Amino acid sequence: MTAASKRARRRVEAPKSPPAADAAADDWREATLADLRAILRRTAPELIEEVKWRKPSHPEGVPVWSHEGIVCIGNVLKLAVRLTFPDGARLEDPRKLFNTRLDSRTVRAVDFFEGVRVDEVALTGVLRDALRINEEDARARTARGPSGATRRGPPRKAGGRSGGRRRPRGLRDRSSK
After folding, report:
1. Which CATH architecture best describes the domain 19-144?
2. How far apart are CA 159 and CA 12, in angstroms?
């Protein structure tokens, strides 16, 4: 066996086009993501959509909508389309839209499944609340200033009460025995 034939044997074939069932699944997920994108644009035209976190296993990346910080993140999963709100635990959800990541301390998410209509009224309410919280947080950040300090007055000296660095243990003055 020659070296060329060994290399040819090791070569991996490129994946073929997906079967019809997978193509149909992609269609509903992409259509659902497009519907969510349209709802987000109608509700909050000030949102900026970016694609982040591109990697070889996920070359198309992840859509992220932001305004004064990340508002929500869209993920196309195998069985659902997920809209994740990083500050979801702080949001009002009177219509019980959130259906996943409910045990997280900060994050909440909504999984949209095939054949289930998007509750546009509930999503609009949650989105407006997320925008309000992001704007409040941005105002609080600007009030604190660039360093993030909330204390007013002159800055403290570094090093605590002594005002300088401490000597290593072996070099301290031992005359006070």
Report:
1. Alpha-Beta Complex (3.90)
2. 61
